[in-house]
Specification:
It is an enzyme of class 1 (oxidoreductase). This protein is an alpha/beta fold. Helix content is about 45%, strand content about 15%. The longest helix is centred in the middle third of the chain and has 22 residues. It binds NADPH dihydro-nicotinamide-adenine-dinucleotide phosphate and ketopantoate (KPL).
Length: about 350
C-alpha cells in the first residue's frame, strides 16, 4: 500500500514526536514536524534521529513552526498542559476530515465525550479551546507505550517496541481513514492496534503513570527502583489501589499490583517523563496525571488521600527531585497517610 498522498502533521519535536517522525518517515507518508526555537533549526539542518535498541533511523523530514494547511492526521506530542495551545496555534491544519491524535499522558480531556459534545473535566482544557476547535468524531484516543529520552545531540533513544493503541472516542468517525492510518503506522514500524475500548487502555496507562511519575519526580527514583525498593513500592501500589478503586466505580477493572511491579522492574533504570521534567526544571504534568483524577473522584464522593498528600509534597518542594535527606522525611509522611488508609 502506498502512503505518499497521506499528509501527517506531528506537533512537538521532543522525545515522542521525534521518535514518531523518524518511524513514520519510513512509511512514505508526507510528514511535517512542528518544532520551535533551536530545535526547529536543528531538525531543519540535520533531520531526525531515532536509536531504537540499536536500529538507527536517520531521516530528513519537513519541519515548520506552525502548520498552515489541513493534514489527514495530526499527532500532538506535547505535554498535556501544552495541548490546547498546540491545537489553537495549528488550527489551520485541522479540517473536518482531519484525524486528531493527542498522545499526551494523563486523564484525557475527552474522557466523557459523546457524539457532538466533548464535555468538561476539572483542570483539562480550562478555557474550552480544545472543545471549541475539535469535534469528538475526529479525535482518536491513543496510548503510546514507548520509553523514549533524548541525548544531548537531539537523538531520540527508545528502549522498547513502539506500540500504539488507538480508537475512536465515540461513534461517527471515518473508519476507512482510521484503518489507513493504522496501516501507515505499521509500515513505519509502530505496532498499532485498534482498541475496542480506548478509555480502558488510557486508564491502564494512567494507573502506571499516577503510581510512579509523581513519586519519581519527588524522590529521583527510576522505575526499577520503585519496583525493587520496598518503601517506594508500597507507596506506588497504594497510589494504584486508590486509582483502581475509582476506576472500578466507572466500570473498569484495572490490572493488579503484581502486573504493575513487573512492569516497573522490566522498564529498568528509566527516569519517567515526569522525572525527566523535574530534573530539567520544566513544568510537571500534574494536572492531567494527578489533579484531574483526584478531583473527578472527589466530585463523585470518593477520595485519594495518598495522591493528595503526594501532590502537596510536590507543591511544597523548593527543588525537584528533593535532596536525599528530604526524601526520607517526605516518604515517612506518605507512609503515615498510606497506613491510615490501609
Ligand atoms: N517520553 C516517554 O517515554 C513517554 C512520554 N509520553 C507522553 O507523551 C507526551 C510527550 O512527551 P515527551 O515527548 O516525552 O515530551 P517532551 O517534553 O520531550 O516533548 C514535548 C515537545 O513539545 C514541544 N512543544 C510544546 N508545545 C509546542 C507547540 N505549541 N508547538 C511546537 N512544539 C511544542 C516542546 O518544545 P519546547 O521544548 O520548546 O517546549 C517539546 O519539544 C507527554 O504527555 C508524555 O507524558 C508517553 C509515553 C512515554
Ligand atoms: C514509562 C511510563 C509508563 C512511566 O509511568 C511513562 O509513561 C512515563 O514515563 O511517562
Amino acid at each position: 500500500m502506498s502512503f505518499e498522498d497521506l499528509k501527517i502533521g506531528i506537533i512537538g519535536a521532543g522525545n515522542i514526536g521525534t521518535a514518531l517522525a523518524a518511524l513514520l518517515s519510513r512509511s512514505g507518508a508526507e510528514v511535517c514536524l512542528v518544532a520551535r526555537g533551536a530545535r526547529l533549526e536543528a531538525v531543519r539542518e540535520a533531520g531526525v534521529k531515532l536509536d531504537d535498541r540499536g536500529d538507527v533511523i536517520e531521516a530528513r523530514i519537513a519541519a515548520c513552526e506552525i502548520l498552515e494547511r489541513p493534514v489527514d492526521a495530526l499527532f500532538i506530542c506535547v505535554k498535556a498542559q501544552g495541548l490546547a495551545a498546540a491545537v489553537a496555534t495549528n488550527k489551520a491544519a485541522i479540517g473536518p476530515e482531519t484525524l486528531v491524535i493527542p498522545l499526551a499522558n494523563g486523564m484525557p480531556f475527552w474522557f466523557y465525550a459523546k457524539p457532538g459534545e466533548i464535555g468538561h473535566l476539572p483542570y483539562l482544557d480550562p478555557r474550552g479551546e480544545l472543545a471549541a476547535i475539535l469535534s469528538p468524531a475526529q479525535i482518536l484516543g491513543a496510548v503510546m507505550l514507548m520509553t523514549v529520552r533524548m541525548d544531548d545531540h537531539g537523538r531520540a533513544i527508545s528502549s522498547n517496541t513502539p506500540t500504539l493503541g488507538l480508537g475512536p472516542i465515540c461513534d461517527g468517525g471515518n473508519e476507512a481513514a482510521l484503518s489507513r492510518l493504522i496501516a501507515c503506522l505499521e509500515a513505519g514500524g509502530v505496532r498499532s492496534e485498534l482498541s475496542a475500548d480506548v478509555r480502558e487502555k488510557v486508564l491502564v496507562k494512567l494507573i502506571a503513570n499516577l503510581a510512579t511519575n509523581p513519586l519519581t519526580a519527588l524522590t529521583g527514583a527510576t522505575l526499577r527502583e520503585v519496583g525493587e525498593t520496598a518503601e517506594l513500592r508500597e507507596i506506588a501500589t497504594a497510589l494504584a489501589d486508590e486509582f483502581r478503586l475509582w476506576a472500578g466505580t466507572q466500570g473498569y477493572a484495572l490490572p493488579s499490583n503484581d502486573w504493575l511491579v513487573d512492569l516497573f522492574i522490566d522498564a529498568g533504570d528509566f527516569p519517567t517523563s515526569m522525572l525527566q521534567d523535574a530534573r530539567a526544571g520544566r513544568p510537571l504534568e500534574l494536572d492531567a496525571i494527578c489533579r484531574a483524577p483526584l478531583e473527578m473522584a472527589r466530585r463523585e464522593g470518593g477520595d485519594m488521600p495518598l495522591l493528595a498528600r503526594l501532590i502537596d509534597e510536590l507543591d511544597r518542594a523548593t527543588e525537584l527531585p528533593v535532596p536525599p535527606e528530604a526524601v526520607s522525611k517526605a516518604l515517612a509522611r506518605l507512609q503515615t497517610v498510606r497506613m491510615a488508609g490501609a
